[in-house]
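Message: A physicist's question: would you kindly supply an amino acid chain plus fold tokens?
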Amino acid sequence: MAMPDDPEPSNAGPEKPSPADEPKGYMVSFAVILIAILVVLVVFMNFTGQNTTAANALTESPWMLQSVYSSGDTPVPVLNGSVINASFSVDGRLAGYGGCNRYSGRYMAQETRIVISQVTTTSIACRDQNITLQEQQYYASLEEAAGLRVHNRVLTLYDTTGKPLLVFAAA
């Protein structure tokens, strides 16, 4: 008969871990599923990042006009001392400076197609008649744009025949 002060008999075998120390089957499965989801997300994000369209690239930076194709196939550089820029926002708004006046408008772009409309400007007279003419040509070319290409941080807008109209560099 065992007395209350006597130690309990012990098994001479190795000590078994308690059930709390063993990994649960559902926790391992849960961890594997989480890792798989993370891998799928990383792969998906990399693929979509590589396939950025010209339409998406429009909104990545403001643009500074480099040249205008007025007549013929020869680009005419922006006049010295004048600055023309454009910013395309993700909500379809276009805004910028045309050389003498601020302007705004709306645009819709998909893949390599673009439509620019509702271009409105302030009414400040330019001191230089050449800058006035350049600004008028710029606004007209914006509304003629039907195609776009972004390559090496250069944005080119084209008319419906594929003729270049405006060439911008990322600012």
User: Anything to note?
Assistant: Strands lie at 63-68, 76-77, 85-88, 93-97, 102-110, 113-121, 147-151, 154-158, 164-170. Residues 45-51 have pLDDT under 50 and may be disordered. The chain has two domains: 21-50, 54-170.
